[in-house]
Amino acid sequence: MTEYKYDVTMSCGGCSGAVTKALNKLEGVDKFDVSLEKQRVVVESSTLNQDEILAAIKKTGKAAKVATD
Q1: CA 32-46-40 angle, 5° bins
Q2: 50: closest CA among 63, 60, 41, 38?
Q3: Is the dihedral of CA 13, 10, 42, 56 positive or negative?
Q4: pLDDT in tens, the chain (69 residues)
Q5: What domain count does the chain have?
Q6: How many CB atoms lie within 10 A of CB 50?
Q7: Is 38 helix (H, G, I), strand (E, B) or coil?
Q8: Domain that holds residue 13
Q9: Are 44 and 30 in contact (CB under 8 A)?
Q10: CATH number assigned to the domain comprising residue 43
Q11: Which residues, at least 6 apart from 17, have a Cβ–Cβ distance to it below 8 Å?
């Protein structure tokens, strides 16, 4: 299983809820954590690659990028 980290601009619970909903629908996600406080999404997957997950997060309309740390 691979862990991917993303910086996602989220301003409220609705924003983090939209990201949570998108990741729940995405097949291949084993585990994830959405932190509104840290503006960070951490996803674990054994079948999806970094770009596929990033595309799903971006479909929510939130600004997102691969975290550099």
Answers
A1: 25
A2: 41
A3: positive
A4: 999 999 999 999 999 999 999 999 999 999 999 999 999 999 999 999 999 999 999 999 999 999 998
A5: 1
A6: 14
A7: coil
A8: 2-66
A9: yes
A10: 3.30.70.100
A11: none
